[in-house]
TrEMBL record:
SUPFAM superfamilies: FAD/NAD(P)-binding domain (SSF51905). This is FAD-dependent oxidoreductase. It comes from Actinomadura napierensis. Residues 42-412 form the FAD dependent oxidoreductase domain. Coiled coil: none annotated.
Length: 478
């Protein structure tokens, strides 16, 4: 493979798409049985990713007698839940300032602490259910690589302090400790937070699906939902499929980046594309040069940011934005990634880790979509009158956030007033995305400006964030 970004060394057996690398070790699941015909349930969940499965799990744990049905178009974990970077990250999926503006500062802080707790809850349930998902709670390293990024890193720490984060939540690292943990070429600063765990995404979602089935939940795969109907008088809410209709007291939509494909929801959330590559297993000499012994998650402070993990079998899984959005909210279901995107990701990985570039090859590349609301803030909603609910819009922070969403949907459906139902993302509703071509133009302009801003910041010694990045934020309300 070659491109303008340079030649990419591909491993024998290199794969592009096929959902993700995470299924190469476990094997791509064979979809289970379709919905056999009309069904009546207490709760019908649309989507068998993390959000849908966590919701079903907690509902059945709380009320074993509930009839819970999950409908999935492909197989459990086909979407972002089986393709993500494996960050169980305890940060708010949205803007704490926006949540605070509507509900007050105390509510936003409560949401942040609920997210911290969600990381431990994922780890706890995996242990209790015997789910071996390569979970390691090693925290996350934020690394700056030029003066502007270093200034943003300092501002991030200062803002966190202002919102009540202590040094136990986020701490700047002196250069010696930074390099002892992870040696990134060109690093100018770093901070570490304990509120993150590494996970093998497919193992987690498949283990969760097995746990849900073990509790008596009916999971019907290869069953696309074409329409969701609200309750009308004595007629219950319903999820309509080609194989029958499921009626229920509540129908809960958990479709995240695939929401645009559900009838009537085309402009609710924008399906943003993210891409990943993974290297071949790297030899001990490379890890001696890099460090990374504690297996922290790792990201940078660029506008066009990257994210990475050291996998359980000693590869580097490395992600970032490729082709960020396809016209008309179309979704590349197979996860195939453009060669130029693979080359761009390899170029960044090689610049950060020269030793890995010297000894490693790209074994797999894939892409997936995440859901982005118009205000970039995630939400959980249950409308009791209509019998409908939904959760999502995680903007790339869904592994831990989906767990909190599942527990919150449980409490809302059961009409229990709890600390979770009082959180400021509950019942948050925002306007829809603009129609095409404005949607496509806005997203692509945003990322073109981010790329240009990163290039300018890397080429100068200025500590000021490029005005181009601020313009990009203004265009899309990021």
């Amino acid at each position: 493979m070659s491109s303008s970004s340079g030649r990419v060394p591909l491993a024998p057996g290199f794969a592009n798409g096929g959902v993700s690398h995470w299924y190469r070790g476990t094997g791509r699941p064979e979809p289970g049985p379709r919905l056999p015909g009309p069904r009546a349930a207490d709760v019908c969940v649309v989507g068998a990713g993390y959000t849908g499965l966590w919701t079903a799990y907690y509902l059945k744990r709380a009320r074993p007698d509930l009839r819970v049905v999950v409908l999935e178009r492909e197989f459990a974990g086909f979407g972002a839940s089986g393709r993500n970077g494996g960050w169980v990250l305890g940060e708010i999926a949205g803007s704490r300032e926006r949540y605070a503006a509507r509900h007050g500062r105390f509510a936003a802080v409560a949401l942040q602490h609920a997210m911290f707790d969600a990381v431990d809850e994922v780890v706890r349930v995996a242990a209790d259910e015997g789910i071996d998902a390569d979970l390691v709670k090693s925290g996350v390293l934020h690394v700056a690589r030029n003066p502007a990024q270093r200034a943003r890193l300092a501002a991030m720490v200062a803002e966190a302090r202002d919102w009540g984060w202590t040094e136990e939540d986020l701490v700047p690292l002196p250069a010696a400790e930074r390099d002892e943990r992870l040696r990134v070429a060109g690093a100018t600063g770093a901070a570490w937070s304990p509120h993150c765990a590494r996970v093998q995404p497919a193992k987690l979602v498949q283990g969760l699906a097995a746990a849900v089935r073990g509790l008596g939940v009916d999971v019907h795969e290869r069953t696309p939902v074409v329409r969701i109907n609200p309750r009308r008088g004595a007629v219950p809410a319903a999820a309509v499929t080609p194989y029958g209709t499921v009626t229920a007291d509540y129908v809960l939509r958990a479709t995240e980046g695939f929401t645009a494909g559900v009838g009537g929801h085309h402009r609710d959330w924008l399906p943003m594309n993210s891409s990943m590559i993974v290297t071949t297993p790297l030899p001990a000499a490379v890890w001696d040069a890099i460090g990374w012994r504690r297996r922290e998650l790792f990201g940078d402070l660029a506008h066009y940011y990257m994210y990475a993990q050291r996998t359980a079998d000693d590869r580097i899984a490395f992600g970032g934005r490729g082709r960020p959005y396809r016209y008309g909210s179309r979704v590349d279901d197979g996860g195939r990634t453009q060669p130029a995107t693979v080359a761009a990701l390899w170029s960044v990985l090689a610049a950060m880790f020269p030793a890995a570039a010297e000894h490693g090859r790209v074994a797999h590349a894939w892409s997936g979509v995440l859901g982005v609301p118009r205000d970039w803030c995630s939400t959980v909603v249950v409308d009791h009158a209509a019998g409908l609910g939904y959760a999502g819009g995680y903007t790339g922070h869904g592994v831990a956030t989906s767990n909190l969403a599942g527990r919150t949907l449980r409490d809302l459906v059961l009409r229990e007033d709890t600390e979770l139902t009082a959180l400021p993302w509950v019942d948050r509703r925002v306007r829809r995305w603009e129609p095409e071509p404005l949607r496509w133009l806005g997203v692509h302009a945003m990322y073109a400006l981010y790329r240009a801003a990163d290039a300018r910041e890397s080429a100068t010694s200025s500590a000021r964030t490029s005005p181009l990045a601020r313009l990009a934020d203004a265009i899309t309300g990021h």
